[in-house]
Amino acid sequence: MKRVIVSACLLGINCKYNGGNNRDPLVVELFKRGVAVPLCPEQLGGLPTPRPPAKIADGDGLSVIQGKARVRTVDGSDLDVTENFLKGAYETLFVTELLSDSCIACVLKEKSPSCGVKRIYRFESDDLKEGMGVTAALLHSRGFKILSSDEREEIEKLLEEI
Ligand code: SF4
After folding, report:
1. Residue 106 burial (10 A CB sphere; 0-12, 13-18, 19+)
2. pLDDT at 33
3. Residues whose beta carbon lies within 6 Å of some atom of ligand 1
4. Under 8 Å between Cβ of 57 and 72
5. Domain map of the chain by residue range?
6. Structure confidence at residue 126 (pLDDT)
7. Which CA distances in Å does 99 have to 8, 37, 41?
8. Which residue stretches of the chain have pLDDT < 50?
9. Coil, helix or strand for 108?
10. Which atom number of ligand 1 is nearest to the Cα of residue 43?
11. Which atom of ligand 1 has the smallest separation from the CA of 15?
């Protein structure tokens, strides 16, 4: 059976930092067909829900993996949550690698500091910048196919494939 790793919030699970979700009908359809595996890296990294919002400072997800950038909360608490983000990314990688024979793609929530695929918010700015979140960057670096939740046609093609 083919498998697609998906950001859990896209299924409708209330795992977002604010306790909400990003329910996406295409991801729900993937799940109903039995192929979607929902994971939330930030919860897997030990962070609570709700939790303070966080952004990557001085780089992107790849920089965090390389130890060149940190992840910090942006609600005024100024906590360093880098280790939680890394733990969540590696736990997600663990599950994805277990399914590597059947995993045809990972559909991840755009703009998230964990799951963002093309654009993320950086600590230094309120504007979106090019770059991946920590989990997306790790999965991509290990050769898995990564799709942004904004790539609607590509996700529809996945549904045709299965
Ligand atoms: S974007 Fe990723 S880390 Fe954020 S709530 Fe969704 S699954 Fe969890």
Report:
1. buried
2. 97
3. 7-9, 15-16, 40-42, 109, 112, 114-115
4. yes
5. 3-161
6. 84
7. 17, 10, 16
8. none
9. strand
10. 8
11. 5
